[in-house]
Design a protein that fits this description.
about 0% strand, about 150 residues, AsaB-like, oxidoreductase activity, disordered N terminus, mainly alpha, TauD/TfdA-like domain-containing protein, globular
Length: about 150
C-alpha cells in the first residue's frame, strides 16, 4: 500500500514505527541551547556530533558505542555539491557496512564485526518545514527483496 500525502502522514502511529522492525524511527527531540552552525564543519563536529551520539545512546536499544564517520548537509541551490537524491535508494548495504567498519575502525573491526553492529543515519530539519524535496521513508518490511535493484555508486 502506498499513501500519497501533501503533509506528513503514516499508516501507523509514530510510536509503533521502530528502527528494529521498520528500519527507521521518528523522534521528536528538543534542540540544545547551543544550536550548531551547519555552515561551519568544525562546529558541526564539536556541537552536533555529541548531540547525535547522545540521541543514539538514549533512543536506540542496545546501543553502547557510537562512531560518527561523516555527515552530509543537503543543499538545494543550483550546483550544490550534495543535493537531494531524487530516487528511492538505500544508503548502506550489509557489504558496505562491513567495509566501513574495517575502514574507519581497523583496530576494532574484528571484535566489532563479531558482535551486533549497525550503521544508522540521522536526519533533521535544519531550518523551516521542508516543502521541496522532503525526505521519505519506506518500512523495510514493505519492500519485497525481488523489488530491490542493486546499483554501485562510485
Amino acid at each position: 500500500m502506498v499513501q500519497f500525502c501533501r503533509e506528513s502522514c503514516s499508516s501507523r502511529p509514530e510510536n509503533q514505527v521502530t528502527l528494529d522492525h521498520d528500519a527507521f524511527q521518528v523522534f521528536q527531540i528538543i534542540p540544545s541551547a547551543a544550536e550548531p552552525s551547519f555552515s561551519d564543519e568544525e562546529n558541526v563536529k564539536s556541537v552536533y556530533y555529541p548531540e547525535v551520539e547522545k540521541l543514539i545512546l538514549e533512543k536506540v536499544p542496545g546501543a553502547h558505542r557510537v562512531f560518527i564517520f561523516d555527515h552530509t548537509i543537503r543543499r538545494t541551490h543550483p550546483g550544490a555539491e550534495r543535493a537531494p537524491v531524487f530516487r528511492a535508494h538505500i544508503d548502506q548495504t550489509p557489504a558496505v557496512a562491513v567495509e566501513r567498519v574495517g575502514h574507519y575502525l581497523p583496530e576494532e573491526a574484528e571484535q566489532s564485526l563479531s558482535a551486533h553492529y549497525r550503521i544508522t543515519n540521522v536526519w533533521r530539519v535544519l531550518n523551516e518545514l521542508v516543502q521541496v524535496t522532503p525526505l521519505t521513508f519506506a518500512a523495510a518490511t514493505s519492500v519485497r527483496d525481488e523489488d530491490i535493484v542493486g546499483i554501485e555508486h562510485r
